[in-house]
Amino acid sequence: MAATRFTQIAFATVAAASLSACGINSVPAAEEEAKARWADVESSYQRRADLVPNLVATVKGAAASETQILTNVTEARARATSINITTNDLSNPEEFAKFENAQNQLTQAMGQLRTVVENYPQLQSQAGFGELRKQLEGTENRINTARIRYNEAVQAYNTTIRTFPDAIGAKLIHGAKPMVPFKAAAGSEIAPPVNFDVNSPAPTASSK
């Protein structure tokens, strides 16, 4: 009886090891990790979107004449929040590109506000503006960190589904497809223009 029990345990251990070696467990584990990191990205972008209306209202109070720039930011935010990407779209380069482009457009539109702030130094004395500035700076840092961690998880997942022996289960059982990482946009070497300090010079193309 003891020998039979030992044999069963040994068989189960070998079977489990074989399944794991073929990507049965490692592929979905890597996929779930990437999805979790994507949720962090979405949360960070949502936090920025939530702050934008407050930013627009604050700037409008001191620079009501800059209606076009304020409108650009509002419209860019609307586009960015209207594009919903599911975890299934993480393997769809076209849908992923639409999402990333919309977020980049919002970043660029917010950059236009830097000029406005520099032209209206009285914004610095607006109640709550300093706190809003800090929140926006912190949010940009969170977005950057979340994107880095997502890219790391995607790299691990994509490597898992392409290397032997995990690739066997990835292809035959899971039907796994590579996920799309974030790529640096043109001019991304320039720091995000979220520091509204009038005394700070605007970033240039040579700033790296």
Order of helices and strands: HHHHHH
CATH architect. name? Up-down Bundle
CA distance, first residue to last residue: 71 Å
- Share of helix, binned: 55-70%
Mean pLDDT: 81
Number of domains: 1
Query: Can you tell me the CATH superfamily?
Result: LemA-like domain
Rg on CA atoms, Å: 24 Å
Structural class: mainly alpha
Described by strand count, sense and barrel closure, the largest sheet is: none
Percent strand: under 5%
Low-confidence regions:
6-19, 194-208
Q: Which word captures the global form? A: elongated
By CATH, the topology is de novo design (two linked rop proteins)
The count of β-strands is 0
What is the CATH level 1 assignment? Mainly Alpha
Annotation field: number of helices: 6
Description:
The chain has 6 helices and no strands. The protein is elongated and about 65 Å long. Helix 2 (26-62) runs antiparallel to helix 3 (67-82) and helix 2 runs antiparallel to helix 5. The chain has helices at residues 2-21, 26-62, 67-82, 93-119, 129-162, 166-174. The protein has a single domain, classed as de novo design (two linked rop proteins). It is mostly helical.
Quickly list its features:
elongated, de novo design (two linked rop proteins), disordered C terminus, 208 residues, mainly alpha
